Amino acid sequence: MIDDFAKEYLHSDLRDVRATMLWKIEGLSEYDARRPLTFTGTNLLGLIKHLTNTEARYFGEVFGRPFPEQLPRWGADKWATEHESRAEVVDRYRRAWEHSDATIAALDIDSPGHVPWWPRPNVKLFNVMVHVLTETNRHAGHADILREQLDGTVGTDAENTGPQERGTAFWDNHRAKIERAAKAFDEAQA
Asked: Which of 114, 123, 132, 143 to pair with 38, CA 20 to 30 A apart?
């Protein structure tokens, strides 16, 4: 039996990482929030849009509680079109949170659900909470790297300024030390 402590613990972690995802776009221009930063086009606003779809589908369809808004198909949800503002994408993400939170509150942790696209489709709320938390943390890691590439901002929130406080010279020296070690190892292998 999975208890309410586990449910609240997972839900609390999900709330925290959601806030981190939104913090990753704070202070950025519309362009920087949405521009492709990897070979495959990964971008910060697209990650948020994808997580909206993830939460709405997993905490909606899986438990017979469909999200009341139209959602993009899987795969078409990882970028914001020129017709979608950051505010629209963020507001939809917050509405998906509210919908997810209502599902989590209404159901017991061992309530059954059905994920037809999974190999073992019969699940419990516990399984879905772990999956969505894992998926959100995965994309928060992507967002960490993307944001650091844009302007050097790292961490989980505005209060976490330790890395920035060390200054550019510290990080330049640190990166150079790592580069030297990588080259030395590579040369030793040759």
From this structure: 132
pLDDT tens, position by position, 59-80:
999 999 999 999 888 877 899 9
pTM, two decimal places = 0.91
What tokens appear for 114 in the block? Answer: 């059905």
Residues 6+ apart with CB under 8 A from 38: 146
Distance CA 11, CA 9 (A): 5
67 within 8 A of 56, measured Cβ to Cβ? yes
Q: Which 8-state DSSP code applies to residue 114?
A: E
The first and second tokens of residue 177, run together, are 């030390």
